[in-house]
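Hello forum,

I keep getting stuck at the same step: I have a sequence, I want structure tokens, and every attempt I make locally crashes halfway through. Rather than fight my setup again tonight, could one of you with a working pipeline run this one for me? It's a single chain of 97 residues.
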Amino acid sequence: MAVSNTTDPESTTIAVVTIRIPCGADGDLVTDAEKRLSRPETIDDVTIDELDSIEPQLSATLITVEITVRWATATGEEEVRDRLAGVSGLESVRRIA
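Reply #2:
Ran it on my machine without issues. Output:
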């Protein structure tokens, strides 16, 4: 019986991103950020590991979070940036590890 490795380190990416959450969004900031980050078809799965900062603005709140993104196949840093660019409200990608 073959054993599959479901924790292949090359199919996950850890990143720190800043995302804009509109005022009046449903749920809490972290849940809404996770939903937004998971929406694009180019992203397989996202988990928010840590909330780094909250910066209230006039019509939205900027939050910086550390995320783990899971991919179906190994993905390079430039491709990760391209895929994250499709996230609505993404302000910046601060770090990719």
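The chain has two helices and four strands. If your local run keeps crashing, start a new thread with the error log.
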